[in-house]
Amino acid sequence: MTEAPATNCVNALGDIAVVLGTRPEIIKLAGIITALGDRARVIHTGQHWDDSMAGQFFRDLGIGEPQVRLTSVAGKPRGLQIGLGVAELAEHFAEHPVRCVIVQGDTNSTTIGAQAANYLDVPVVHVEAGLRSFDRNMPEEINRLVVGAIADLHCAATPENAANLYAEGVAEDRVVITGNTVVEATELARAQAHRHLAAMVSDETVSRGYMLATIHRPENTDAPESLERILRDLASSGKPVVFTLHPRTAAAAERFGLTDLLTPFEILTGVGHADFLELAAHADLIVSDSGGVQEEVTVLKKPLLVVRRSTERPESMTAGFSRLVTPELDLAQEIASELRASHDALADTPSPYGRGTASREIAKLAERLALVS
């Protein structure tokens, strides 16, 4: 069952549900939650359930604690997360109706929120709609396709994302190009950095210049040879590496007997969003498999190597901020090449993700949709 406030009053809960469950969703939806004010009913699925992956971000972003927390999702495999989450959330919506549901991105929580709403004829707003990697081996791609078929209003970050939706037959009047909420989220976080660089990494690392690495996707952590290759190639550059260690990656290194390969790095855990951006803003190069980082570097004006088979964010590459390093490429060589290159032009390159107005625009669109539901 869901945990809800003592009152069952829908007005007290808010009539526009914002369903989230992971760190990136919290970060990217915070501006929308703030803009909605008392109308927002924040529902946490529990997909990321520990404090370092979720709790601290609610506090850091000043949006309070979720009004509702699902209890069936945390720690379950993907299929059970989605099945149990949809059932529990649909039950909550049946007991405490909403006028509109907002979901973001491509996580299991995204598809949980969209499906539960759709089954009860509640309109769905999809934030960051239309991303496509065209790689169905990627779990996130399946979530994108499912929510793309369900959503009533698609808030596309870029014209390229909108074009993907049109190609799938989505009517133009259901698509709005809003920009990406990551722009204002990044700018706000940079203004609220909790710790200066010197409090997180050694003076020697700062003086020599460093790479920032963060790896967590299943394609890089679920097979020992993949994770070993990445760790060895990161260490081979001769450059200091600051590694923000994701719980999935830490568990994989332990399981595969690869923890010794982490010793050359300066390891940081439980790094908040603002602190991560502080590290990224001063790095010579970022190496990551994160989707959000591909967007954030366009605001920070930093170079990025994306260690993945495919990406759903080609705009960052087209603009010159990132390059895709697929498994058949030599990551060590790509790192060496990128460290030698000049990135001066990035400082004057605009982000392809908008100018920082997406959150307010999406909140207004959701309120308008709620009026007619």
What does this molecule look like?
The protein is globular. It has 17 helices and 13 strands. Residues 1-11 have low confidence and may be disordered. Helix 14 (291-300) links the parallel strand 11 and strand 12. With 373 residues, the chain is an alpha/beta fold. A 7-stranded parallel β-sheet has the order 3-2-1-4-5-6-7, with helices on both faces. The protein has a 6-stranded parallel β-sheet with strand order 10-9-8-11-12-13, sandwiched between helices. Helix 2 packs parallel to helix 3 (51-60), helix 8 (182-191) packs across helix 14 (291-300) and helix 11 packs parallel to helix 16. 46% of the residues lie in helices and 14% in strands. It folds into 2 domains: 10-181 and 356-372, Glycogen Phosphorylase B (Rossmann fold, 3-Layer(aba) Sandwich), CATH 3.40.50; 191-348, Rossmann fold (3-Layer(aba) Sandwich).
Strands in their spatial order, largest beta sheet: 3-2-1-4-5-6-7
Q: Runs with pLDDT <50, length 5+?
A: 1-11
Proportion of β residues?
5-15%
Fourth-tier CATH superfamily name of the largest domain: Glycogen Phosphorylase B
- What's the order of the H and E elements? HEHEHEHEHEHEHEHHEHHEHEHEHEHEHH
The best one-word shape is globular
- Quickly name the level 1 CATH class of the largest domain: Alpha Beta
CATH topology of the largest domain: Rossmann fold
Give a count of the beta strands, DSSP E runs of length 2 or more: 13
Q: What's the CATH architecture name of the largest domain?
A: 3-Layer(aba) Sandwich
Number of structural units classed as domains: 2
Q: Rg from C-alpha positions?
A: 20 Å
